[in-house]
Structure formats: C-alpha cells, structure tokens
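hey so i finally got around to running the thing on that chain from the lab meeting. sorry it took forever, my laptop kept dying and i had to restart like 3 times. anyway pasting the input first so we r on the same page abt which one it is
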Amino acid sequence: MAVSLSTLWSAEEIMSNSFVLTMRCPERPGIVHALTSFLVDHQCDITEHQQFDDPESGLLFLRTCFRSDAPDLDLETLRGDFGALAIEYQMTWHLHDSAVRGRVLVMVSKVDHCLNDLLYRWRSGTLAAELVVVVSNHRDLEPMVTAAGLPFVHIPVTNATKTDVEQRLREVVEEYEIDTVVLARYMQILSDPLAKELDGRAINIHHSFLPSFAGAKPYHQAYARGVKLVGATAHYVTADLDEGPIIDQVVAEIDHRHNADDLVRVGRDSECKALARAVTWHAEHRILLNGNRTVIFK
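ok and heres what got predicted. didnt touch it at all, straight out
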C-alpha cells in the first residue's frame, strides 16, 4: 500500500524549523499513530507524508516532512526524544534539518556532459544539494570547474598508485565534510573497501547497455548491433561493479534514422537526466534501501 499526503509551503516556511524523517521497520499496527502523536506532542505540523508497506519483506517504509513554530525545538532535541519510540518499533531511521543541504563531491574523468549538467542545476538552485569540490584523474575539465567557482583536485591514477589515490580521496572527503560522492562518468573502478566505506553515499551513472556493450565506445557498438533503445542507469555504488541498488533509469527510443553520433547524443542526455534525478532524490532524502532495491518517495 502506498499513501501520499502533501501540502505546499513557501520557501521561507520550509527553511524555518523544518525537518525530514525517513525510516523503515517491521510492519505492525500503531506505528503511524505513534509517530503522529509524537509530532503533536512536540507541536509539529506534517507538511508531507508518504509510506509504503512491502508485503514481501514485511517492512514499512516512511518519509514524513514536518515543521514547528516552537522556538526551542531543534534537531538534536528531536533526535534525542525520538530514540525511545524508534527502539520500541525497531526502526532504522534518519532525521534531517530541511534547511541543511548535503555536501557533494563530484568525480569525473574527461567526458563533461554530466558534470556540466550538475553544475548548471546547482547554480540555478534546482539540484537540492551543494556541490563543493570536483575530483578528477585528468585535468581536461579543470577550466570548467574553476569557472564555476569550485575547487578542482587533480588525483592522477596509475595501477601502481591506486591505493595512494584512494587514500587521497578519503582525505578530500574528510577535508570538505562530504556527505555524498557522485561519479559523473568517472572512468575508474573504486576498490571494494572504499565502495563499502561509501555504502549508501556514492552514486554512479552508466549507459544501460552493460554488460552487452562494455568497454570503449558502447554507443557505437550499439549502433553496429542495430539496437532500438538507449538509456542510462543511476545507482548506488557497491563492491559489485555496476550492480548496486538502482535509483533511476531513463530510456529513449531510436530507429534506423539515427547514426552512431545520434546514439551518443541521446545517450548522454539520458545519463544527465538519470544522474540529476538520482542526486536530487538522494539529497531530499527520498530514497530508502530495501535490500538490493530502492523505495523512492517522489
């Protein structure tokens, strides 16, 4: 069962004592009643509520946005008071201040379309996240990054320096207090230990031909094969290469009139759309993990 109840608030109201709660727990009667009672007791007003009961896992997934005019109510107070209720219902939960935007590190190599799209959405205020630094194993996109006013960190990669490279990346994540790492066509594979460290915090984008057309020039391979669909998949990074929980997929139809360059253009547009939506939904705390699947409250 899926339920959605939303009320629109002005930007000023959203910024004032507004919070987002996400949680999953074993389904049982009384959970929503207990939550709403907790919010009433803390003088909170629900502005958006969505929930999903998964019959296969027996879990309840829930995302609730709420606000309060109580001057002494802050995030830490809410977290402390909510703990007892969470224990009672065996909740895995997170509570966020809506006014705080997640800090994002973007990783790129030489291809610029995904980075350029993220920069545009960030500067226009539609990304719901804060881009703070760009890391690359090449210097090709440094002018684009510096023109946007962001720090550019060049970390060249060789087989001999792979371990040192990932340690440097960890240092950058810590230095810039990064919440989310976005691989915007970063053409290097993260090690299993690093992928596990970034579990649930790293998002990747790739064309949807994998594993059919892996390697160099996948769109040209697809053209030679005569495919009729191209697209892209955005997913969380895991130790299993390109097999993490899927966040979004974009598919576009093509036909005999499209040449190989057309496939590249359509495919890149798909990659930009899927990655931007994934980053935005993640930043807005709309994604909950359900094993190797995702529950997304759009």
